[in-house]
Amino acid sequence: MITLTGHTLSLQEIKRICYDKEQIQIAPTSIQKIQHSRNVVESIVENGQTIYGINTGFGKFSDVKIEEQDVNELQQHLIRSHACGVGEPFPEIVSRAMMLLRLNALIKGYSGIRMTIAEQLTTLINEQIHPVIPQQGSLGASGDLAPLSHLALVLIGEGNVFYKEKVYTTKSIFSLLGIKPVELKAKEGLALINGTQAMTAQGVINYLEVEKIAYQAEWIAALTLEGLNGIIDAFHPAIHEARGYPQQIKVAQRINHILQDSNLVTHQGEKRVQDAYSLRCIPQVHGASWQSFDYVKEKLEIEANAATDNPLILENGQTIISGGNFHGQPIALAMDFMKIGIAELASISERRIERLVNPQLNDLPPFLSAKPGLQSGAMIMQYTAASLVSENKTLAHPASVDSIPSSANQEDHVSMGTIGARHAYSILQNSRRVLAIELICAMQALEHRELGKMSSHTSSLYKKVRQIVPCIKEDRVFSEDIERLTLWLKESDFSWNIFPTNSKSQGGING
């Protein structure tokens, strides 16, 4: 059971809640804050004060005063009219993360909701009822209005939900489980949709997958180094300490550890004086990607605990201010940075694939073919990798540099952060496939070396992967191999974290 406070949610806790389906509860201190801020909202309604979003219209309609008897109806109209999302739904795990993050923001006590709203979100999360939320339609400022409106629809018993891996109407699942829809009161609709939780939820899921992929990329690169008799001297600690980037230093340390007892890697001058950049510069390139991921992680953990709706009830209820915390620019920039970091892991991987299959660049059979000429071997796998890398380049164009005014120019600069987060997820999927192709090619290259000379770590990985993709003894439909191995990479966890902190210790592969 994880207790939410609105201030302390970590990415690892999000992982436990989203992936492991751990149950949640709200901290007693947060309950008190929720109740206090709600009292402020009800006092405003009773006293007839004019406060944006409580008794006014929204966006360009902010100057339209809403009568007391209509403030509840205003919230229902808001949710239904703003539920304009289109396209394929977000993955179910992103929907779950979105609910969690929205709840964590609301219980900070700045939003003026009733406990009923927080309790409803808690129930949905614990019962694993996840809103079906279309991916497209958010500008990433004024919050993720369209996606979060589809989330809010479910709280009031409308829209559709994922439940036990199928899609149902919310009404049918609520009836089945005895859950009552909530009736939104003053400010609650706006509090639910004014926020950055769509882009942040997708961003968190991106990060949790990217972290795994980045570690896997190092393992796969190590196999390629063995398959090409790469020069291990380029990973000497002194080189990387001389430059000083911690991430670069750590990548070199991990590669050295993985290959510590390998007899397939070489030293400079044995076979060649130096390797191509795609081998020699693995720590520099992968390390730079890790820098981008570290930046993203920091921003996501801040945003996961941020108050991002508008207006906010501040200073113990004494101050209510309309501001702009819903603007997604911090996450938009982070997602664009993440896109570049992931794309570069795939880009350098594709260059290593080329070195594995091109007979002009190695001493292996052309295209790793069992019968060169009669059989094409891995020739077209490199084409596929190149296509995916090229697609990544178009997706990596920053979404955050674009802005289109909305709401009659009241909302005249927007972040497009949700587009950036979605594109990052697409790049991530493409990159995993590129790495799967490199892994297939690296293992095939190793078939032409002495497998007994592999390091103990890479040998363990090799044996695991050979259960997924057999040796290429003749041409077959390689698409099936790529997809099967891609799925295995997504579901497996072989990362640096499996090793004890003692760098001399032996680790195994957990997969």
From TrEMBL:
InterPro entries: Aromatic_Lyase, Fumarase/histidase_N, HutH, L-Aspartase-like, Phe/His_NH3-lyase_AS
Main location: cytoplasm
Catalytic activity: L-histidine = trans-urocanate + NH4(+)
One annotated Gene Ontology cellular component of this protein: cytoplasm
Its EC number(s): 4.3.1.3
Keywords of this entry: Cytoplasm, Histidine metabolism, Lyase
UniProt crosslink position (5-imidazolinone (Ala-Gly)): 141-143
Pathway: Amino-acid degradation; L-histidine degradation into L-glutamate; N-formimidoyl-L-glutamate from L-histidine: step 1/3
Gene Ontology terms describing biological process: L-histidine catabolic process to glutamate and formamide; L-histidine catabolic process to glutamate and formate
Coiled-coil residues: none
Subcellular localization(s) per the UniProt record: Cytoplasm
One term of GO molecular function: histidine ammonia-lyase activity
Pfam families per the UniProt record, alphabetical: Lyase_aromatic
Modified residues (2,3-didehydroalanine (Ser)): 142
Post-translational modification: Contains an active site 4-methylidene-imidazol-5-one (MIO), which is formed autocatalytically by cyclization and dehydration of residues Ala-Ser-Gly.
Keyword check for Cytoplasm: yes
HAMAP family per the UniProt record, alphabetical: His_ammonia_lyase (MF_00229)
Family, similarity comment: Belongs to the PAL/histidase family.
NCBIfam families: hutH, PRK09367.1
Protein name per UniProt: Histidine ammonia-lyase
Gene behind this protein: hutH
